[in-house]
Amino acid sequence: MSIGQSLFAAALAGALALAVSPASSQTLRYANQGDLKSLDPYTLNESTTHAHLGHVYQGLTARDKNLKIIPALAESWETPEPTRWRFHLRKGVKFHNGDPFTADDVLFSADRVRKKGSNMQTRLAPDVKVVKVDDYTVDFILPSPNPILHNSWDVWYIMDKKWAEQNNVVDPTPVAATTPSYASLHENGTGPFIIESHQPGVKTVFKANPNYWGKVEGNLKEIIFTPIASDATRVAALLSGEVDVIEPVPIQDISRVDSSPNAQVLKGPELRTIFIGFDQTRDELLYSNIKGKNPFKDARVREAFYKAIDIELIKTRVMRGLSTPSALMIAPELFALSKDFTRPKFDPDGAKKLLTEAGYPDGFEVTMDCPNDRYVNDAAICQAVVGMLARIGVKINLLAQPKAQYFAKVLKQGGYQTSFYLLGWTPSTMDSHNVLYDIMGCRDDAKSSRGEANLGGYCNKEFDAITDKVLVETDTAKRNQLIKQAYEIGMKDWAYIPLHQQALAWGVSKKVNLPQRADNLVMFHWATKKE
Hints:
By secondary structure, the chain is α+β, with helices and mostly antiparallel strands. Helices cover about 25% and strands about 20% of the residues. The chain contains 15 helices and 19 strands. α1 (about 5-20) packs across α6 (about 230-240). It comes from Bradyrhizobium diversitatis. Pfam families: SBP_bac_5. Belongs to the bacterial solute-binding protein 5 family. Keywords: Signal, Transport.
C-alpha cells in the first residue's frame, strides 16, 4: 500500500468510526460535506442548517413535500383586514422540556428573530407589530398589506421564551460568535426529534420525540449525522453501507453510485441560484491592490467580469451538464416571465475592452471568497472563474474555506467582509420579492432588514421603490410586470453575475425511501428504512 493509499484508508476509517454505532433498522446515518455550526435557529439563514433544525424546531407554518404551505404550530390563519393577520395556535403542544407552547413564545420569537445578531431578520419586518389576543391567538399588524407575509415562516422556528430566559439566550447567537452560547449547543423545540447529543464538527444524534404532538410519516427512531468533508470518503461510506444518505454526491461519482448494488442517486431540479457578487459600497476595496478607489463601483468593470465568464464551459466541464445557466437571480420555475430574459454572451475580447475603458488596461488584483463545502463543486466553480478572469488580466486570489469560516467572515457583524464572492440563494418565500428585497435591496437603512443578504451593497433606489410595489400588488399580471422591471434594472446595472441553478444529487441507500424537495431541505421525518 502506498503512502497516499494509507492516508486515505486512515481518513476513511476515522470518518466511518464516527458514523458507525450499534443501531436498529430504524436508525438512519446521514453524512453531509458541511458541518452543523450552531443549534441556535437564528444564527445562520442557510438551507442545510434549516433542514437539520427542522427536525427539532417548527414554525407557525410548514411546507409539504411539494412545497405547499400547510399548518404547523398554527392550526389556521386569516386576514380580518388587509393589514392584520390572525394566527390561531395549536393547543396541547409542548416543548421538548415539557414547557407548554403559547402565544408568549410567538411574541418572544418575533422579538428575538429581529434582534441584532440574528441572520433571520427578514422573516419579520421591524415595523410589524405582534399582539397577543389570548394564549392561543396572535395578531400581526402591518403598516401596509403583504399577501406573502407567511411564505417564509416554515423556517422561522419558534423558541421557548421561558427556556431562553433561564439559559441566558434571549439574544440570538451571531454567526461570527467565537464563544458558543447555550442555544448554539442545546435545543428545545417542539418537533418530531430531540437532539440527544451534539458535538460540533464530529457527530449529532437525533432521537424520536415520544411526546410529539403530530403524526410522523416515517419510521425512524434515530438519526446520526456525521460531517464528512472528503468527497471520496463520503462516497465510500455510502457504497460500503456505513451511511444511508449522503448529500451531495460529487458529480463525478454519480454514475458509480447509480451502478452500485446498494445505493442510488436521487436527482432533480433545485431552486437555488448560484451567483457572484461584488463590493459596490466601499470607496476602497478591502482585498485588492487598487488603492484609493473601488473598481467595482464602475458598471463597466462589473460588465467585464460578467462577460469574461464562460458559463457554458462551467456547465460542461465543472458541472458535467448538471446545471442550468441563468440570466436571472431566480430559478425560472419561480418567475413566470423568466423566458423574457436572455443571458449576455460570453465575450472576453469585449470584457478586456471594457476594463481598458474603465482605466484598468492591465487588470487588477482582488480576493475572491468562496465556500468549499456548501454547494455542488463550489470551489471548482470559483477556480474556473479565476482562470477565466486571468484571461482579461485580472488576478484573483482565491480564498476557499469551509462554510463555517466562510459565513463567519462574509457576514461578520457590522462588516460584510468581502470584496468579491460566490453565494447561493433559494428564496424562502418561493417568490421573487425575497430576491429583490434580501439580495438586491439597499442595505443603507439601519432600521430595515432590507438587503440583509446583500453582501456587496448593491443599491438602486428606483429598484427598491419597485420592490415595495411588488410586495403589496395583488394582481398577478401587474405584479409580474413590476418584478420584470426590477430585474431589468438589475441587469442594466450589472448588479450581480448569476451563474446557474445546480441539480440536486442525494446519495441514498436502496433500503431508504426519502422524498426529495426542490428547496434541498433533506427532511427525514418523511423517511422510511427497511431491513
